[in-house]
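dumping this here so i dont lose it again. seq + smiles for zinc ion
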Amino acid sequence: MISMFVADTHVHLLGSEKPSEVEASMDKAGVDLLVVIAPYKQTFMPQGRVSCANIKSVRMGNDFVANLVKNLPDRLKGYAFITGLGNVEENLRELERAIQDLGLHGVKMFPNLGWYPDDPKMDPIYELIEDLGVPILFHSGVVPWISDIHGQGPLLSKYSRPVYYEGVVRRFPKLKIILAHMSWPWFMEAITVAYLTPNIYLDLCTDFTTATTRLKEEALKMALETIGVERLLYASDATPLGWEYMREHLDRTVKLLRRLKVSEEDIAKILGGNARKLFKL
Ligand SMILES: [Zn+2]
């Protein structure tokens, strides 16, 4: 078990979890806090497997996460989900409801649904999120399932290249942006974009990608040498009841950081200290 405060900042709800089960799982995993993502119906999962099948709408997913978080306020923080698709006003209304009324702590967006992060049509959404003062977690890098969304059009990785955030941060300099998965395989691009702006963070979960241990070490070394530890966030991409994976991922990450000779003080920042500041815990 790790004796430091551990916040896992990227965890996917499926929409059926009960608070007591989540808490028990976290205790077994040795994780103090999860930032959980609103479940959203993922029709793009492989082999016709639809994740979060009982979540019928974005609103329902946001209600689910808010309710769970209210039941475990000391252990959970929640990301609202909006698609960024369709009517911008509807996205804005749901965003306001989720952050202001439901009290959620961040926003998750998935550009691979078919928009570029720097598309000016997203600006009203970023403007509101900047005003609300919460971070956005973007799926970034390759997409895990190159398949169909709603039965039409492929889900493509091209929408989540880190270089598209240059335009976003120029227009919204106070927006806090987390690029998930170190934008794998574009970690050099992600680290470089982060080097140029103080408000880009990287999360460290890369398991579904081509990040072998050796390559991940290289990526972490580059990040540590250039942007330092303050904007690296521990994340597993797990589901909250998957405590065995959560624990194994945590142990593996700590071993990797120790092998890179990161000090215990800096490991504590990556595992939880940085999240504490970002989410104002
Ligand atoms: Zn994820």
